[in-house]
Amino acid sequence: MLSLFEARIEVFPKPGTRVPEAAAILDALGRLGFEDTLNVSVGRVFVIHLRAADRDRARVMATNMAGKLLANPVLERFGIDVIEFPQTNVPDDAERMA
Question: What's the predicted TM-score (pTM) here?
Answer without folding.
Answer: 0.82
